[in-house]
Amino acid sequence: MKTKRVALVTGGNKGIGLEIVKGLASQDVLVLLGARNLDDGMHAAEGLGENVYPIQLDVTNQTSINAAADRIRRDFGRLDILMNNAGISRARPNSSFQDAVSTNLLTAAPLADIRTVFETNVFGVIAVTQALLPLLRESPAGRIVLTASSGASMTLNSDPSNSHRKMFGNYSASKTAAHAVTLAFALALESTNIKVNAACPGFTSTALNNFNGTRSVEEGAREPVRLALIGADGPTGTFSDENGPVPW
Ligand SMILES: NC(=O)c1ccc[n+]([C@@H]2O[C@H](COP(=O)([O-])OP(=O)(O)OC[C@H]3O[C@@H](n4cnc5c(N)ncnc54)[C@H](OP(=O)(O)O)[C@@H]3O)[C@@H](O)[C@H]2O)c1
Description:
Elements: E1 6-9, H1 15-25, E2 30-35, H2 38-45, E3 52-56, H3 62-76, E4 81-84, H4 97-104, H5 111-138, E5 143-147, H6 154-157, H7 170-188, E6 195-199, H8 217-228, E7 239-241, E8 244-245
Parallel strand pairs: 1-2, 1-4, 2-3, 4-5, 5-6, 6-7
Antiparallel strand pairs: 7-8
Helix pairs in contact: 1-8, 3-5, 5-7
Bound molecules: NADP nicotinamide-adenine-dinucleotide phosphate (NAP).
């Protein structure tokens, strides 16, 4: 068994996930860089040093999830941190931005597209967390963090003065569901050593939003990494960004 803490970052091959990988590895955590395409993962891990190992993991594929969980137990013997970071904003990655915006609206989105987004952003979180809970329960200080979205806050989007709320559609609804799932895991694990929290990176420039975000990935990764590394006195069942608590 490794003596260093071991973390798994889903969707670790690019964007905020890759920056989370770097942030955790710099704190001497051994980081498994999850990538649904292993070649992309190996490419992303190049030059990141001996603390980073690529691992194949498609969060929508139970066989892939089970194989990753088996490999982590066999080759690393522990898991201390699970970063539920993998996510998609639209079902058809090559669609035009206009198409993506209109199929984001629940009034217009084909049900199959809605299911695709929920499959990754919601059921992917549940499936990966369930598969890795046995290892996390063995950790002296298990941590689970969701890369969450303040844009999916029901409280903030209920406010008519919120100018962004027109964008509350399929993607946001899926992230709201992911928030709820994260809180449900936190409550179910309250009596254990595992702390479960949701961290919003802010509007970060990545492929998810066609690089329209206003924050860098370095900025976006800060709050997720902070929550991944909290001590025994840290919170559980919270939602926050770099400025403090965010309403669910
Ligand atoms: N960017 C923002 O402003 C923002 C704001 C709030 C929350 N977030 C959240 O931050 C997280 C990361 O997004 P990002 O902005 O960094 O986007 P990104 O650059 O597009 O990265 C998304 C990552 O998720 C991976 N992924 C997608 N589907 C997957 C699957 N089925 N299995 C495994 N990995 C999968 C992607 O892999 P591929 O390379 O194979 O596609 C990629 O590594 C998401 O959960 C998103 O909802 C982002």
